[in-house]
Specification:
With 138 residues, this protein is mostly helical. The protein folds into 2 domains: 89 residues; 49 residues. 78% of the residues lie in helices and 0% in strands. The chain contains 8 helices and no strands.
């Protein structure tokens, strides 16, 4: 609930600041994460639709949509979100890492390793630590 309150506060601050573009992508993404965490799938879908409306569709939309599909048990849709996201953002570290985790959980270690190795090429040091932990878990 704290994150939700913080996100709403940020939304209010962005709306009030003159000549400042709203950080709608970050706010919608955080709200979607919060709603997913709370198990409120309907509100998560609304925020994901808000994200999808931003052009070009942000990479975080694909990652969060795949995560929500997993949570809702729609495993058949997960790969499609990763495929679409990586077609638009082939070097996105979060998408590559998240797809790698999903693949490794579904017995596709070789494909998962390829995702992780590709992600490491573009990862910041703190991201690389996380990715290496995922590699060790395969």
């Amino acid at each position: 609930m704290k994150r939700l309150s913080l996100a709403l506060l940020c939304l209010g601050l962005c709306a009030c600041a003159p000549n400042t573009p709203p950080k709608s992508e970050m706010i919608y993404a955080q709200l979607a994460r919060d709603y997913i965490g709370q198990g409120d799938w309907a509100l998560a879908h609304i925020k994901l639709n808000d994200l999808r409306a931003i052009q070009p569709t942000p990479a975080v939309y694909y990652s969060l949509s795949a995560y929500l599909a997993q949570k809702e048990g729609r495993e058949d849709e997960v790969a499609g979100f990763y495929t679409a996201g990586l077609a638009q953002y082939p070097d996105n570290v979060a998408l590559l890492n998240n797809e790698g985790v999903w693949l490794s959980r579904h017995g596709q270690a070789i494909k998962a390793m390829a995702c992780f190795k590709h992600a490491l090429r573009f990862a910041l040091p703190q991201e690389a630590v996380h990715i290496r932990k995922n590699i060790a878990g395969i």
